[in-house]
Amino acid sequence: MSYITLNSHKLFHNYQYLEKLFADHEIHWAIVAKLLCGHEEFLKVVLQMTGKDLCDSRLSNLKTIKDLSPDTRTIYIKPPARRLAACIVQFADVSFNTELNTIKALSEEAVQQQKIHKIVIMVEMGELREGIMAKDLPKFFGEILNLPNIEIVGIGTNLNCLNGILPDEKKLFKLNRYKEIVEHMYGRKIPYVSAGSSVTIPLLFKNQVPEGINHFRIGETLFFGTDVYRDSVISGMYQDVFTLTVEIIEIREKPVVPAGTAGTNLTGDTPVYNKKDIGKTTVRAIADVGLLDIDQKNIRPVDPEVEIIGASSDMMILDLGNNASRFKVGDTLEFTMNYMAVLRAMNSDYVDKKVVHHVAGNELKILEFRN
After folding, report:
1. What does the alpha-carbon distance between residue 242 and residue 343 come to, in Å, rounded to a whole number?
2. Are residues 54 and 17 in the same domain?
3. What are phi and psi of 163, to 5 degrees?
4. Which of 10, 20, 34, 174 is labelled catalytic?
5. Residue 295 counted as domain residue
6. Full-model pTM
7. What's the CATH number where 117 sits?
8. How much is the pLDDT for 359?
9. Same domain, yes or no, for 183 and 261?
10. 34 part of the active site
């Protein structure tokens, strides 16, 4: 059976890198753990590594976090569905909000559960995903300011996730200015301006994050060492915290070009082949993983001689060339993974999950990953 491993040593190294970076800029940060899909063993690695807030967009995952560590502050990082207000208050200490009626429901549930529920108001800054319009912020703030058992702890924004709109110094300055206007109007302090995600980190390197932006939510860069802004990697961080391992279940020398009339395959594609390859053969292997578990476009073989040909629902086809490495049935192959590959594998019950606690050698293994 195929499996995905999380290397705790490499993850902790990445965590320490970010901890120093944010401390140097006097910025608070929380870990976005939604990639782990509520997997207990992987969550335990994160919880043992830090006492920081954990963010997720799935209530079942927040419940798992609370079961494992009741004192960890949990943050629900998308606008809640109104019907889930009771569960939001039960499992999330903080939630990101944009709808007045939903916040009123959260207030009612917080009173019922005898809790103070904290909220962050999300503001639209050009990405056109969640967020109220900036011109509506003062009125919106006033309407929820005195709701019982609700505490406004921040305003925030989301960028880059839908339309790819990048953060910049001007946008971040505006968001902080909106916070200052509301504070002045109502005489209330707002502790956090949560404007940062992994894509905002490169602005820190260039000192382009305005004073007042004091909270980041980080997932991808922690787990992958990526510079999301430039679609590259950050030197000094590990990119291979996660590794996919698959087993070879068949290996044969076969023609390069299939025989017969080609229709569309499982994914609706009709493969195109080079006529020059007719009559040629290569060693092909079948691995015990498929499209139900991974997207072959988002993984890369560690062995440079291995090439991914394609995949069906539960098998992946590999070209081994002349099989110089002498692979045989039962051997395993390793693959590096990007964010979407890990997300797919973590959601598959057919891929085992394992934790490893070591790192080979003394140098960082920097793997630049591009689609």
Report:
1. 11
2. yes
3. -100, 0
4. 34
5. yes
6. 0.93
7. 3.20.20.10
8. 67
9. no
10. yes
